[in-house]
Write a structure and sequence with these properties.
By secondary structure, this protein is an all-alpha fold. The protein contains 12 helices and 2 strands, in the order E-H-H-H-H-H-H-H-H-H-E-H-H-H.
């Protein structure tokens, strides 16, 4: 049975305002040491180096959806390979900003043509369809739900209903999709909190959600990378490492 996300974790935003508001309670030296530790750990253990951390697709829902669907059991790659090559190919086809899902949805009757446009015929987990067909079906479901652009994503819960109704797509796809648009879902939030707790190793088994997001935001600033890039890198590096730590109550 599918379990619909609930609670505030499904709609938390990893935005700069979170960084400012959630670390003020920490002493200056304590905060500085924590941020420095996180930045060092991030640089050591996250894949590809800072310049290859994907920063998400804020304001581009088509790219976010393609990223989420095509990154399942796949190499993320560079702008000329892997998942990012798919987004690059779609951008070339569209020739405009990627924030109107009706364009992808129009391929529901021609999924093979979409696969050719994207240059990718991989299949979704479970081998139900090609990823191109699943992406078109997901786009159509999102449009039917009233989510045709990034400005209509809301707290992401209606998007969950639409995406997980497509065979081969599930909660992980939804988590990745909304994270590309600046929302942190419950599983990603649990992994982020777990990453911070493990990195700091200060005897605490539970790191409050807002503190974890705030410290990662400050670490991203110290590394001169977008906060969304660091959040995405943590999620991508940890989402295959077993069950996520359950997020704390907001």
């Amino acid at each position: 049975m599918r379990s619909r996300p609930s609670g505030d974790g499904a709609a938390l935003s990893g935005a700069a305002v979170t960084v400012r508001d959630t670390t003020e309670h920490m002493g200056g030296t304590m905060k500085h040491n924590a941020v420095r530790t996180l930045a060092a750990v991030a640089g050591d253990v996250l894949p590809g180096g800072h310049t290859l951390w994907p920063a998400g697709w804020p304001g581009e829902i088509e790219a976010a959806l393609l990223d989420a669907v095509f990154s399942a059991r796949a190499t993320y790659g560079t702008p000329t390979s892997g998942v990012r090559r798919v987004v690059t190919a779609w951008r070339a086809h569209r020739g405009t900003r990627l924030d109107d899902l009706t364009a992808l949805a129009s391929f529901t009757s021609a999924p093979d043509r979409l696969a050719a446009v994207l240059g990718n015929r991989q299949r979704v987990p479970g081998n139900y369809t090609t990823k191109a067909e699943a992406a078109a079906a997901a786009a159509a479901a999102l449009v039917t739900s009233g989510i045709d652009s990034s400005g209509r994503i809301g707290d992401g819960r209606n998007a969950w209903d639409a995406l997980t109704g497509v065979p081969g797509l599930g909660t992980t796809t939804w988590e990745t999709f909304v994270l590309q648009l600046g929302l942190v879902g419950p599983l990603a939030l649990g992994e982020i909190c777990g990453f911070v707790a493990a990195a700091l190793d200060d005897g605490r088994s539970d790191i409050p959600e807002t503190e974890a997001l705030g410290l990662l935001g400050a670490a991203a600033a110290s590394l001169d990378v977008p906060q969304t890039a660091l959040l995405n890198a943590v999620w991508r590096s940890r989402r295959t490492r077993g069950p996520a730590r359950k997020p704390l109550s907001a």
